Amino acid sequence: MINIGGKDSDHISICCDEPRTFAKTVRHVIEEHGCKDIYHVAGDKVHDFTFERIGAYRSELESHGIPFDEDKIYYSNLWFDCGDAALDFILEGCRKNGKKLPDAVVCANDYSAIGLINACKARGINVPEDLIVTGFDAVVESTSGFPTVTTATQPFYQYGYKAIETMLRMIEGEKFPDLIPVEGDLICNQSCRCKAKTVDNIDDFR
Asked: pTM (2 decimals)?
C-alpha cells in the first residue's frame, strides 16, 4: 500500500517536500525582489510542518548572507483571522528597529497571507507596493482576491503520478524508501510584484 499526501510509518508515503517547496517562496523574494528584511508568519508549534517551513526560511536567509532572527517569526492559527495580530507583531518589530515596514512577509499558508493582506488594506498599507506578501499551498482563494497571492503548490497531480509509477515498479520487485518527497512549484502572482496589479477592488467589475 502507498500512502499519498502525508507520512505513515506503516507504508511507503509520497508527500510534499515541505522544506524545498517552501524555500522557493523565500528564495524568490530575496533573489528576484532584493528583499533582506523578511518576516515569517508561521503555524502553531504543535505541527511538524511549522518547523520544517521555519527551517527552510532560516536556511534560505543564511545561504544568502541574511541573519536569521527568531523575533521575526509570528506563530499563528494560519487562518484568515490571524492577519491583524500578525500585522501588529510585524509593525511593533519594525518600530523597535526604527523601520516602518519590512521588505517582505513569507506566510506558511495562503489563508494567513490573505488575512495579512486584508489587514494591510484596512490600515492603508499597499501590497505589494509597500510590502511583499507570499503564501503557500496554492488554494483557490489565492487567485480570487486582489492582489492575487504569490504561493507554492502542494503537488497533488505529481502525487498521483508518482504513486502509480512507484506501484508499477514495486510490482516488478524494485525497493523504495519509506518516504518519497515530491517538490511543488512556485506560482508568481501580484502580491510580489511579478504580475501587474491592474485591479484592486471588486467594485471595478460592477
From this structure: 0.85
